[in-house]
Design brief:
Layout lengths: L1 H20 L2 E2 L6 E2 L1 E4 L1 H4 L17 E4 L8 E4 L7 E5 L9 E3 L10 E7 L8 E6 L4 E7 L2 E4 L13 E7 L8 E6 L16 E4 L12 E3 L4 E7 L8 E6 L10 E4 L7 E2 L15 E5 L8 E5 L5 E5 L8 E3 L1 H4 L17 E7 L8 E6 L15 E5 L5 E3 L12 E7 L8 E6 L5 E6 L7 E8 L11 E6 L2 E6 L9 E2 L3 E6 L3 E7 L9 E4 L2 E6 L5 E4 L10
Parallel strand pairs: 4-34, 31-38
Antiparallel strand pairs: 1-2, 3-30, 4-5, 5-6, 6-7, 8-9, 9-10, 10-11, 12-13, 13-14, 14-15, 16-17, 17-18, 18-19, 20-21, 21-22, 22-23, 24-25, 25-26, 26-27, 28-29, 29-30, 31-35, 32-33, 32-36, 36-37, 38-39
The structure holds calcium ion (4 copies).
């Protein structure tokens, strides 16, 4: 008896040591798989996204720093449960831990989606809060305090079922242009079938202190919006992902913005071919490094990678999901006969090897029998040949939840991207990227600043040059599913100790190439076009 017990103890010790120390390398590709440790139990994140039919979609999180310590803080939509703001208390490189810091006015019910944006360019992040009912724009006051600004900024919050948001700064404008995506019109006759509300486009008022009356945009039950400069014209266009569940005659949409005229939709005559999916989320990245952004669209079963093939002339796309190994149409685990339901998607480099990776949130709408119930999230790691492979199981991402929104940010400022997963009816997944020092690549985190307006440089492109390869990132607000992150821009550098960086500002002006050292935080201001390195404090300030 005693001997058996001892053998058991020895065996356990060996297994634990192996799991913690040995770097996980995919045998076939040689790609390093990060370990994603779930810190949920000690994170203090106890919020849940709950509700009936009208909360089956949504479930977002906004990740941004509200107390100026560089550690991203989190505002969670709660659906029928009240929304919560959590202040990041993590130590640098330590476990992910938070304290509830929700002021009374943010403790709102009916919140579906939430996005950070500095609307009034005062350097303090504001919040767009989308609801089943009136949307609210909160002006940031500093120290994680906010005040309602709908009236001050002439923003009509409406009374729709709002699910999607994106924003851009049009040429020469001091104020942003906002797009609000709406879902089913639940008051219309015959609802929900075919009764989709219009979307809205809010452009700056001539008075320069808020918004003009919005333009209504015909839509087909929108679940994601993204302003992105598909043709590198210097003006971002609005991509719209619509859910065919409630309007089978709908389609994906693209709207052009030009100064001083009403926005119009690209048509098939412009080269924009009809695509009709259960559009849930948009992720963008220049996947084939040709200078034009490509788009991953989540759906039910038929996820698409829309490779931008129009060379900037026509909005033409080719579906490359199958070829690249990112269809992710079925669960990688159980229930593999049934199709997946995909929501938030985001490109990021999780193992810092310079090859872009893709996270996809998955989860049944509720109990739809034709779709997988056990539908785990995906971590698709990029390979050197441009294809991807599924690494979620080996990375330790086994949890089966109905995931909706997500944030992919470095929450403990150790240079490794972490994941927050918003789950229907359950507490969030809090995945800390625990990489092995032996194999993890170098990284850099950049804060790209304009000094006058559009402080977070929405519409700018970051180019990072290592050896013969350029990585590009367009700075955007929007996309994903109901969730937004704004702050530092993370790049993996692989083995490189130096990287050349330049910024293409929203007006097309290019900065000089600047050389950066690896494993640093740096700010680039438009005015001086130079890298300023800084170091975050070890410990987030305690909230009292
Ligand atoms: Ca913070
Ligand atoms: Ca602000
Ligand atoms: Ca990678
Ligand atoms: Ca991290």
């Amino acid at each position: 008896m005693r001997i058996l017990l001892m053998i058991g103890t020895v065996f356990l010790t060996v297994v634990t040591a192996t799991a913690e120390n040995a770097p996980l390398i995919d045998e076939q590709s040689g790609i390093y798989i990060p370990s994603m440790i779930n810190d949920q139990a000690t994170s203090n994140l106890r919020t849940r996204y709950t509700g009936d039919w009208d909360y089956f979609v949504g479930g977002g999180v906004a990740a941004f720093d509200c107390n100026d310590d560089h550690y991203p803080d989190l505002y969670f939509a709660g659906g029928q449960t009240k929304a919560q703001l959590y202040i990041n208390q993590s130590k640098r490189g330590g476990a992910l831990t938070f304290a509830n810091g929700t002021a009374q006015n943010l403790n709102l019910d009916k919140v579906v989606a939430t996005y950070p944006i500095d609307i009034n360019s005062d350097g303090i992040m504001d919040l767009m809060v989308l609801r089943l009912g009136q949307n609210i724009l909160f002006k940031g006051l500093g120290e994680c305090q906010f005040e309602r600004a709908n009236e001050q900024w002439n923003f009509n919050g409406g009374d729709e079922w709002s699910t999607a948001f994106s924003a851009t700064w049009e040429a020469d404008e001091n104020w942003p242009t906002l797009a609000i995506g709406n879902y089913v019109d639940r008051k219309a006759e015959g609802t929900p079938w075919g009764t989709c509300s219009d979307n809205q486009l809010f452009r700056p008022a001539d008075s320069d202190d808020g918004f003009a009356e919005p333009q209504n945009l015909k839509a087909y039950c929108t679940l994601s919006l993204l302003f992105s400069d598909w043709n590198r014209s210097g003006n971002q266009s609005l991509r719209v992902s619509n859910d065919r569940q409630y309007n089978k005659n709908g389609r994906e949409q693209l709207w052009r913005l030009a100064p001083d005229v009403a926005t119009t939709e690209y048509t098939k005559d412009d080269g924009f071919k009809k695509l009709n999916i259960w559009g849930m989320g948009i992720a963008s990245h220049d996947v084939n490094a040709d200078g034009y952004p490509d788009y991953f669209l989540t759906s039910m079963g038929d996820n698409k990678l829309r490779l931008n093939t129009g060379a900037g002339e026509k909005p033409k796309y080719k579906n490359m999901a199958f070829k690249l190994g990112i269809t992710a149409h079925k669960p990688w685990s159980e229930d593999s006969a049934l199709l997946s339901t995909a929501w938030h998607a985001q490109f990021a480099d999780f193992n810092n090897d310079t090859l872009i990776d893709l996270f996809i949130a998955k989860g049944n709408v509720d109990q739809m029998p034709d779709f997988a119930q056990h539908d785990p999230n995906n971590l698709l790691l990029g390979k050197r040949d441009g294809t991807f492979f599924e690494a979620a199981e080996k990375a330790g991402m086994h949890a089966i939840n109905l995931t909706r929104g997500a944030a992919i940010v470095d929450l403990n400022l150790d240079g490794l991207l972490d994941i927050i997963e918003v789950n229907r009816n359950e507490v969030p997944g809090v995945l800390r990227n625990l990489a092995s020092d032996q194999v993890i690549g170098n990284w850099i985190a950049l804060d790209i600043r304009r000094l006058d307006y559009n402080k977070n440089s929405i519409g700018a492109w970051i180019e990072l040059h290592i050896n013969d390869k350029i990585q590009r990132k367009e700075i955007t607000i929007g996309g994903g599913h109901a969730s937004g992150s704004l702050g530092l821009h993370h790049f993996g550098l692989g083995e490189a100790k130096l990287a050349d960086i330049r910024i293409i500002w929203p007006n097309g002006q290019k900065s000089n190439w600047m050389t950066a050292k690896a494993n640093q935080f740096a700010t680039i201001n438009k005015q001086d076009s130079a890298l300023t390195f800084w170091s975050p404090s070890n410990n987030a300030e305690m909230m009292h």
